[in-house]
């Protein structure tokens, strides 16, 4: 699917001067970052849409761009439960 974005001509010129042929990718990345920051997209959705192979690659990508990785107390409890199952005696 193609999406058309209407920009003022001077904005397009400026963006193309900065990002050249990578403008489409930069727009996609900006939308993904905003979607993740606002909670509209999950980390997995960002990972899939970027074509990353792992969660860690996506977390590094987000971190490099100053996007805080969401990690709730529920996530922590899920991780604790996983550790209890895989590490006997703890």
Describe the main β-sheet briefly: none
| SSE sequence, one letter per element | HHHHH
Percent in strands? under 5%
Query: What percentage of residues falls in helices of 4 or more residues?
Result: 55-70%
Radius of gyration from CA coordinates: 18 Å
Low-confidence stretches: none
Overall geometry comes to elongated
- Secondary structure tally, helices: 5
Average pLDDT over all residues = 89
The separation of the N and C termini measures 50 Å
Count of strand segments: 0
Structural class: mainly alpha
- Tell me the count of domains: 1
Q: What distinguishing features does this structure have?
A:
single chain; 90 residues; mainly alpha; 5 helices; 0% strand; elongated
Structure overview:
The structure is a single chain. This protein is 64% helix and 0% strand. With 90 residues, the protein is mainly alpha-helical. Helix 2 packs antiparallel against helix 3 and helix 3 packs across helix 4. The longest helix is centred in the middle third of the chain and has 15 residues.
